Amino acid sequence: MLLAVAGYFAFSYRESAEQPNANAAPRLAFVTNGVADFWVLAGKGVEDAASEIGVTSSFHMPPDGLADQKRIIEDLIVKGVDGIAISPIDPVNQTPFLDRIAAQTLLITHDSDAPDSKRICFIGVDNYEAGRMCGELVQQALPDGGQVAIFVGRLEQDNARLRRQGVIDQILGREWDSSRYDKPGQVISGNGFEVVATLTDQFDMAKGKANVEDILSRHPDIAGCIGLFAYNTPLILEALKQSGRIGKVKVISFDEDERTLQGIIDGTVHGTIVQNPYEYGAASMRLLKALVAGDRSSIPDDGIIKVPARTIRKAEVEQFRADMYKKLGQ
Amino acid sequence: MKKVLGIFSVLVTVALVTAIISPAFLSSYNIENLLRRSALFGIIGIGASLVIITGGIDLSIGSVICLIGCLTPWLITVIGISPWIVVPSLLVLATGLGLTHGFLVTRLKLQPFLVTLCGLFVYRGITRGILADSTVGFGTSGSELRSLGTGRIPITDSFGLPAPLLILAVVALVTSFGLRRTIWGRHLLAIGSNETAARHCGIDVNRVKIGAYALCGLLAGLGGLLFVLDTGSAQPSNFGNFYELYAIAAAVLGGCSLRGGEGTVIGVLIGATLVQVLRNAIVLIDEIPDSIEFAVIGGIILLAVIADEAVRRAVARRSNED
User: Fold this and answer.
1) pTM for the complete prediction?
2) Coil, strand, or helix at residue A57?
3) What pLDDT is stored for residue B289 in this prediction?
4) Are A68 and A167 part of one and the same domain?
5) Quick one: fold of B2-133+159-317?
6) Closest to B280 (Cβ–Cβ): which among A61, A203, A214?
7) Closest of B316, B302, B300, B289 to residue B12, by C-alpha
8) What is the rounded CA–CA span in Å between residue A222 and residue A196?
9) Is there a contact between B235 and A262 if contact means CB atoms under 8 Å apart?
10) Which of chain B's residues have a Cβ under 8 Å away from the Cβ of A260?
11) Would you say residue A31 has pLDDT above 50?
């Protein structure tokens, strides 16, 4: 029976391979760097744009990191997609792989760029700039400075590194230089601030919360906690709540987790920097469709289409949340 | 107690060294955190140890944690079912999964490694499928249920006993009593030492083994419940990832032989605590970079097992001389 099934698939595959989709809708794919609610919004953007402009889209969230992402992309190439938008997990080391993909289909990057690869264009936020915006929130929340700690899923990703560097450079009052990199594991201080640690959790929630608790133990005078990935802030809030220090330690956030937004309303979170994942999805589909048709006019000279980040504080939060729910169809 | 002396001394040494380098280690807040984390991992470690005592293994613990940990908030907040129904049903489900493992291992004579490895894949896959990979949590609504995971009984102003520790205490006492003082426990140890001999003695080997797998499933489910009550949310793709290995490490560190027939509850608790103290120490001691966490844990576990073996041999030699 298995053989029969395999035979059927082999046959139908050959059939589709023999019929180049000259007049069929272009087949486009969107690949994320992992599984997160953030990406669910991007998926919605992909879906909406695809039905609007008449392309066939598929959306993929690799659950297990680099190897998994590679496997999915390779399978998409096998499937014969006309164009693909990828958020590279490890841009530098994935560059040779991305170049191979670019040789086989139209490749753009989103969310996190691989500037040295042969990708045609990057769609996303300037993470360094977004980091500096987050740093401004830290400065507002802690006008007298103090000890702060940074919590992030992993630092192997370009976007995480750049955000972190942006925050640090802003609060230390340094010049703009996105190529600077302060190694984690050392205390960085200046301008009245002291960044006592940057802790990663590799997406393990229990570990992420334990990291916050350990910092609260180790640095009783901690004044601010900064969560760089969507789920970090809710874990910071949990740990603060349990230690009875909620409201006393300032929390500055990235992204739009429900509990982060509620925290802003309640006053337990000072503010958050949000990207526009919906637009990543929608813009990727629009651009790839144009590229399939041979139209490159919408690509800027530097090959970067910026989707600006926004600062959300108490005044903006309700409107922002309503808009997000609308996009998710809730 | 002699059996756990080696591992206990390693735990004390690690704690002392950490406390000397980082005084914050001994702060009541940190101790409370450590007690809560050790309790959570202790519960799943006890489950793993029961199966290991029979000479089996359960690799599905992390995925059962994922299944129960994700379904709990989903059923309560998204579907809107009462926690009074959700919690007991999910614990029954977890026990049922364990029973199924036990049944497959004993009646169909399948390898425990294989059966539970399939469980590892299947339960995570099912969870991710049901939730379509989205994160689920209790949201901002403070469910009273959560106090089971986050609650505490205040002892002093700054120190309290975390609720999971009390749950662990009940689990540990019942298991310890079951292992040492009941026929079932005696049979369990006998089967682990020599299954054929146990069978010839008239022990219903299959029934006792199925019981061990069922209890392991139940405790993994309970662990999953408490983990999600503690963190507040769970992501199907990684919740509980590798936790079976922490549970197995705790059991083996605590003196459970992977060949079966040996193991004490107190040993497992010390083993679970050692792993959590190590993870804590890595964050508290500035000189140890975060990134080498696994290397440190692996290295210390290896040292602990060596120390344990040395102590056992010394004890055995002395009793021979007596």
Assistant:
1) 0.77
2) strand
3) 75
4) no
5) ABC transporter involved in vitamin B12 uptake, BtuC (1.10.3470)
6) A214
7) B300
8) 9
9) no
10) none
11) yes
Interface of A with B (CB under 8 A): 34-37, 40, 61, 63-64, 184-185, 187, 197, 199-200, 203-207, 209-211, 213-220, 231, 234-235, 238, 241-243, 258-259, 262
pLDDT at B143: 64
Taking any CB pair shorter than 8 Å as contact, residues of chain B touching chain A are 22, 24-25, 27, 29-30, 33, 37, 40, 128, 133-135, 137, 139-140, 150, 227, 230-239, 241, 279-280, 283-284, 286, 289-291
Q: What is the ipTM of this complex?
A: 0.70
Please check whether residues A13 and A150 belong to one and the same domain.
Answer: no
How far apart, in whole angstroms, are the C-alpha atoms of residue B220 and residue A304?
48
Residue A106 C-alpha, separation from nearest chain B C-alpha, in angstroms = 27
List the CATH number of the domain containing A148: 3.40.50.2300
Tens place of pLDDT per residue across chain B (322 aa):
567 888 898 899 999 999 999 888 888 888 988 999 999 999 999 999 999 999 999 999 999 999 999 999 999 988 989 999 999 999 999 999 999 999 999 999 999 999 999 999 999 999 999 988 777 888 766 567 888 888 888 888 878 899 999 999 999 999 999 999 999 999 999 998 899 999 999 999 999 999 999 999 999 999 999 999 988 888 888 889 889 999 999 998 888 877 777 888 999 999 999 999 998 888 788 777 777 888 988 998 888 888 777 877 887 788 777 6
pLDDT at A329: 74
Provide the residue ranges of all domains of chain B, joining segments of one domain with +: 2-133+159-317
Name residue, tokens 């640090």. A168
Closest residue in chain B to residue A211, using alpha carbons only: B283
**Which residue type does B248 have?**
I
- The residue with tokens 């129904």 is B85
The two three-digit tokens of residue B238, written as one number: 């990684």
Two tokens, residue B165? 């520790």
Interface size A-B, in CB pairs within 8 Å, comes to 104
Are B232 and A262 inside 8 Å of each other by CB?
no
CB contact under 8 A, B24 and A203: no
For residues A243 and A284, membership in a common domain is answered with no
A34–B133 C-beta distance less than 8 A: no
Distance from CA of A317 to the nearest CA of B (A): 15
